[in-house]
Structures are given as structure tokens and as C-alpha cells.
């Protein structure tokens, strides 16, 4: 199963701001409200691109999608160490990873974006997720 390339967010906007967006959509500047909001977010991210890049480097974050499966974590366990998962984007702990294996091999999780993991793994690692 492929990972989704986006996550749904819910935001609250004032009626006047919403009206402005609807006006721009009606005038043909954007195809719909979501298009306007995505464009506005991308514009803000572009404005802060240098700051984000420096912070990603400083924090040593993996950028994009990072997947941890049973085989990956078994190799970590065999080496006698633990991993610190630090991702900006999407971190996936696969369905074939047991809570016990995750507890033995994952020291900490910091995800700026989204974390997908089996409920039992999330529960077992709750105190290690920041």
C-alpha cells in the first residue's frame, strides 16, 4: 500500500477572510479554496526557506518519507543499538513491527509532519514520542 502524499487539516477562518478567498476563486485566480490555501502556505514556506534549511541541518532531521519495517528494526536490534527517529515529513513504522520490537529498538521519535504506526506501537512508545 502506498503512503498518502498529503494529510487533511481543518482550520478556522473569519467570515471576511473566507469571503475574500471565495471572491478570488470566483474571479479565477484560484480553482477552489484549497488551491488558495495551498498556494498561501507554499508562499510562506518559500519566504522562510533558508531558516527551514538551517534548522533541518542543525537538528539533523531526515527530510521526506522515512519508513521503518520489521527487517530494518531487527537489524538494529542485532547490532545492539537503538535508533532516534527524527523526520520532517512522514515517518512510517510498518504494520509488521511489533510493540516489543519497537520498544527494544526505538529510543525516541520526533516527527514534524505525520507519524503513521500501528496503534499498539504508538501506545508502547508514547513516552518516547515528542
Task: Please give a handful of descriptors for the protein shown.
three-stranded parallel β-sheet, 130 residues, alpha/beta, 47% helix, 3 strands
User: Could you give a short account of the major beta sheet?
Assistant: 3 strands, parallel
Low-pLDDT runs: none
Strand coverage percent: 15-25%
The domain count comes to: 2
Mean pLDDT: 94
What is the number of beta strands? 3
- Written as H for each helix and E for each strand, in order along the chain, the element string is HHHEHEHEH
Strand order of the largest sheet: 1-2-3
Distance between the termini: 27 Å
Using only CA atoms, what is the Rg? 19 Å
Instruction: Give the helix/strand class.
Output: alpha/beta
Helical amount = 40-55%
Shape: elongated
Number of helices: 6
InterPro entries: Arc_rbn_hlx_hlx (IPR013321), RHH_8 (IPR041088), Ribbon_hlx_hlx (IPR010985)
Pfam families: RHH_8
Protein name: Arc/MetJ-type ribon-helix-helix transcriptional regulator
